[in-house]
Structure formats: C-alpha cells, structure tokens
Amino acid sequence: MSTSEAPGFGLDLPEYPWEAMAPYARRAAEHPDGAVNLSIGTPVDPTPEHIRAALAAAADAPGYPTTHGTPALRESIAGWYARRRGTPDLDPADILPTVGSKELVAWLPLLLGLGPGDVVVRPVVAYPTYDIGARLAGAEAVAADSLDELDPAVRRRVRLVWVNSPANPTGAVRSTESLRALVDSARAQGAVVASDECYAELGWGEWDEARGGQRVPGVLEPAVSGGDLSLLLSVYSLSKQSNLAGYRAAFTAGDGALIASLVNSRKHAGMIVPAPVQAAMRAALDDDAHVQAQKDLYRARREVLVPALEAFGLRISDSEAGLYLWATAGEDTWTTIKRLAELGIVAGPGVFYGEAGAGYVRVALTADDDGVAAAARRLTNASGS
Ligand SMILES: Cc1ncc(COP(=O)(O)O)c(C=O)c1O
C-alpha cells in the first residue's frame, strides 16, 4: 500500500466503535466449541425463496432505476402501512425507497439542509448513526427523550428529532400518547420528527400482535399524527423482518413536501435503490406470512436466552420488542463483556450507545437455533444451576 504524505483529507469521524470488540471476539473464539456471536444484530436465517426469485426475475436491468421508486413498489409500501402499521390512505407519492435505512439516518440532516447552529435530538441511549448524521451535516447532536429535557436556548435550535421505537439497543416501546406528545412538541418548534421504526413487527408480550397484544405504535398513525403528516417521516427497513440486510432495502414515508425534496436531492446525488432490489422489496412487502414465520423463530430464541441470561445473573430491562435483550449485571459493561467472552459468547457493549448505556450489554437474538441453544447451555452451566 502506498500512503499519501499530504494530511488533511478525510472526515473527522470517530473510529468505528465495533473495532474495540476485537479482543473479546478473539477471546470468545478460543472456546473449545467455538464462539456464539450475539453482538451485531445481523440476520442469519435465509432470505425467503420468493424474495430471491423476485430479485432474480428482475436481474435484466440495463437502464437506470427510478430514485423515487417504481409506482408498483410504492403501492406495496402503502399497502403494508395500511395492513400492518395502522396507517391507511398513505399517498404513494409520499413514499421513497432508500439504500437500507442506515444511509438515510446518516444523511437525513444534510439532505434536510441542516448545518451549523442546528440541533438534532436523538434518544439518550441510541443507535450511534443519529449522531454521525448530525456531524456529517455540521449540526449538533443532543441526547434527549423529550424536548422538555432541553434548555430553552437549545430547544429553540432543534430542527430534527429522532425517535426510535422499538428502540435499539434497549427494546423499549413508546406508547401512542408518548409519541403524540413528542410530535406535538416538535411541531410547536417547527422541527421534523423522524421515527425509526424498523423493529415494529417484532413486538413481544403486550406488543406481540400474534399473541393477542397490541400493535407497536407508529408516527404516521392518525392517533399520533392527528391525521396530518406535516413534518413527520417514518423510517423503515426490511433488513430484519425479511432477512434482507444484504439487499439494502428500506424506505421512508410521510410529509409530501419533505419526500419531494429528498427525492430531488437524492436524484442529484445518485442515492438510488437498484431495480432488482426494488422488485424484491415488493415481493417482501406483499407477503406477511414470512415475516410472521421469522418472528416465530426470534420469539423461540428469545424464550431460550432470557432465562439463561437471568440464571447467569443478568437483569433484563425494557426489551419489549426488537432483536435485542438489554441486560445488566450491575457491574462495568466491559467486565460483563469479558465474562461472556470467557464463555465463548460475544455481546454488544452498552457504552456504544451513549453514556446512559454504561453497565449494560446488548444481547442479540441473531444466532441460529444451535448457537442460541449453545449460548444458553454455557450461561446456565456457568451459573451452577
Ligand atoms: C435503529 C436502527 N436503525 C437503522 C438500522 C439500519 O438498518 P438497515 O441499514 O439495515 O436498513 C438499524 C440496524 O441495525 C437499527 O438498529
């Protein structure tokens, strides 16, 4: 590799945090039966056959795809919001596919025209990309779960509020009332609310619709939006519910003027979902059965892991929905990470998600059944029970 002598290039971003996990991953790999990786929530089950077939059938794609998404895809997304998210009558014009949702999270502040002096609010314990997006725009990220927590001088500068329910990493779900209150206070400020809802189909307990629970509330639902989508964006991803993380398949929907502006900027910037992926997304969104089948797999893995983690001495908090168990042993995060690594289990350090994550670890449900069973055995044996 030849290296440039001239400094001064590259963005001033923190080192990607997961690099800090390398020693613990190495330690876990020394386990005689191998490591079980429950750190990054990357899906491990196969992409459903009918989605792969749709991708393959659309493989002949010599022309440029549409940035706004095909009308057929946007119809499928609108249909899914109506069926699954309590949001009927969404205008397909007010929907936009994205290249996975991480890119939208990272670029939204810039694409909204935010910059120095503007404040982006993100949850106190949060997916780190909300902060990165603020930095890429030169705006200031502020951690808060309600605008009432902010100093008035900061509150006046808020232009974008991220909400993430069900949350990564905590699995906490915000009620309709709490979302509504956040929307009302952000609107009073003239700020956009971007609601990252990618775990909404994975509710447990009282949020498990498949077991008589309620639907996880979303920002576009009339009970939250008041029937007015202005300043609201729902951000959604098919990575988890359809095992499509490798396809980069996601979308956003809401305020028509914001969507139109995003479409225009993204046309200029070449932020376009490939045509075969757009076809695959339709196949995924038109079929609810595979999402329910995948959810059943995660539910079963969760039911194996919860008692094993508790037997090991971890207390699980929140974790009402999504792909993670948010747990603490009442000690330093890295002590728990090390103790788990000694059992050949790799977990995510809570401190990666903000200072309020100190003392916690995030345990993902994304290992196959054998891996989850092995992790549970090791945890239970280590507890001596
Ligand atoms: C809260 C949250 N938002 C966004 C993403 C990004 O999803 P993707 O880029 O795969 O669509 C993730 C992935 O883990 C996430 O947890």
UniProtKB/TrEMBL annotation:
Residue span(s) of domain Aminotransferase class I/classII large: 36-379
InterPro entries (alphabetical): Aminotransferase_I/II_large (IPR004839), LL-DAP_aminotransferase (IPR050881), NHTrfase_class1_PyrdxlP-BS (IPR004838), OxyQ (IPR019880), PyrdxlP-dep_Trfase (IPR015424), PyrdxlP-dep_Trfase_major (IPR015421), PyrdxlP-dep_Trfase_small (IPR015422)
Keyword annotations: Aminotransferase, Transferase
The protein's required cofactors: pyridoxal 5'-phosphate
PANTHER family for the chain: AMINO ACID AMINOTRANSFERASE, L-GLUTAMINE--4-(METHYLSULFANYL)-2-OXOBUTANOATE AMINOTRANSFERASE
Family, as annotated: Belongs to the class-I pyridoxal-phosphate-dependent aminotransferase family.
The name this protein goes by in its record: Aminotransferase
Gene that this sequence comes from: dapL
